[in-house]
Amino acid sequence: MDRRLSRRAVMSGAAATAALGMTGCLQNPDPGGTDGGGPVERYTPGDTPGSGTVSVLGQFGGQERDGFLAALETFQSDSGITINYTPDSDFTNTIQQRAGAGDPPDIALFPQPGGMFDLAEKGMITPIDVYLDYDRLNSTLIPGFLDSARLQGRVYGAPMRMACKSLIWYPKQAYEEGGYADKPATMQELYQITDEIKASGIAPWSDGWGADQSTGWVGTDWIEEFMLRVHGPVVYDDWVQHRIPFNAKEVVDVFDLVGDLLKGEGNVLGGTDAIINTPFSEAPLPLFDDPPTAMLVRQGNFVTGFFPEDVQANMDEEVGVYAMPTWEGGFDGQPILGGGDLATLFALNDDTVKVMEFLTSDVFGKEWAQAGGWLSPHRTFDQSLYSSEITRQIAAIASEAAAFRYDGSDLMPTAVGGGSFWTGMVQWLQGSKTSQEVCDEIENGWPQ
Known about the structure:
alpha/beta; 4-stranded mixed beta sheet; Bact_solute-bd_prot1
């Protein structure tokens, strides 16, 4: 672990710059509204009456659909507006096709910003500052969330659901019996815990990147987590938006830091071969062996759905979780990497605005929260409404974050974020390419 600690001085300059830049980064540079030259007036009630029915297209179905519909019932009754929700597992392609054919839904719920930006650039989506109170919305959201929906100074979507990725999971009883700290303040302290676990005779970490054609995406999350912690949100944004090259020294250094952890002898159960060949959904399972064969796994809040059924049935007693900690000498604050569904408006009228105001407010989702499987992106959401203590812990972790940033690979061009970055991570982990070589190849292949 010593080489990681010696790198702090190398990282501190960029991290300090990032910390100083945070205040400006979280503000709307153009709340009054200009779009490519001309001013866009705010919408006022009565400008365009609605029809009484609003169509919504999203990706989530099954139990998630049920939770969403339950969260809409009271609003529909009180407002008199009927919401017709259509789930589509091929949402990414469907929304592009429908919008391109002149038949978009009134409102769409984008699981990633990329497709939203494509349509915003074509003038198909209304910026939120036209019809929502931007400052009020931003004041209740986890800091930085709206920046994930910003394009050329305008914000085109507002979050109605959050995913939290920056989480470290552990088997509660075994971890506590081992005497390991459950709230390490820094990654360096977490490395000390890693060494303590290793000294006890088991692997500290379990990890799995297997995902068929998508193998490697878990690896991109590791790089993104460290970019946020070591260099801070401003440098992270510059990297994701390609304002600095992918092979910048800051990025290559982070690859090396992640390699120190994942490639370190005995750090991960089964070593690098196991990481590549283990499906990401199976990575948590060694934590619940009897006795555990690994003690830690880093993954988002969705991973609980892959825990053994008996563990899921008794989550609060069986599972512990804490935030992936900060980097000593890096960004001065707790960053959170995640994602979320962004509500966007295609048809501007009184009814659609009322629906958007509700979907993006801190009172939306209480029924969904009680059913489970949903997190509010608002710091001001009533966390007592969540169905389990562990969900409330995760909500608190996200709510207390100094900065939230969207998954970087989801913001990069598809050829990178869903292509060369994934494959590059696999080549890097297997040792066929160095950190510098992988970063150089990704940079050289960045779409012009």
